[in-house]
């Protein structure tokens, strides 16, 4: 059983590292490059499709910030249980469900953002 908890702990750690190295830079760079492209292309900042992008990006960011803290706690719980061999328990399961529930609206919003940026509906 301890090997299973060690695998969960390793996976949780890898998720935190991936967010640190990949998601964080993207979250910081995307708005800057997006604004630069909007300026280069001459789109008004208050175009309806662009306002939709800003709102959805805010939703994605709010979900992601919460997810980061959940991931850190999941990692810590998994590490503790990997060392002790005790079952992960209810807190881990609740946090994991929240993590999944926050992931779906963020992922869906990113798909809508992509669609808005490609189609730029009037």
What features would you describe in this structure?
The chain has about 120 residues and is mainly alpha-helical. The chain has one domain (about 1-120). It has three helices and no strands. Helix 2 (about 50-85) packs antiparallel against helix 3. The longest helix is centred in the first third of the chain and has 40 residues, at about 1-40. It is elongated and about 60 Å long.
- Give the helix proportion (percent range): over 70%
The helix/strand class is mainly alpha
User: Biggest β-sheet, characterized?
Assistant: none
In DSSP terms (H or I, runs of 4 or more residues), the helix count works out at 3
Name its key features.
mainly alpha, 122 residues, 89% helix
In a nutshell, what does this entry contain?
With 122 residues, the protein is mainly α. It has three helices and no strands.
Outline the secondary-structure elements:
Blueprint lengths: L1 H40 L6 H37 L4 H31 L3
Helix pairs in contact: 1-2, 2-3
């Amino acid at each position: 059983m301890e090997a299973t908890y060690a695998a969960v702990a390793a996976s949780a750690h890898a998720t935190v590292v991936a967010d640190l190295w990949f998601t964080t830079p993207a979250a910081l760079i995307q708005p800057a490059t997006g604004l630069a492209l909007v300026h280069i292309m001459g789109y008004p900042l208050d175009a309806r499709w662009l306002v939709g992008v800003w709102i959805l990006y805010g939703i994605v960011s709010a979900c992601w910030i919460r997810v980061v803290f959940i991931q850190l706690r999941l990692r810590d719980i998994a590490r503790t249980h990997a060392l002790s061999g005790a079952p992960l328990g209810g807190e881990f399961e609740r946090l994991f469900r929240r993590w999944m529930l926050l992931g779906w609206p963020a992922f869906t919003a990113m798909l809508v953002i992509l669609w808005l940026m490609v189609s730029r509906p009037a």
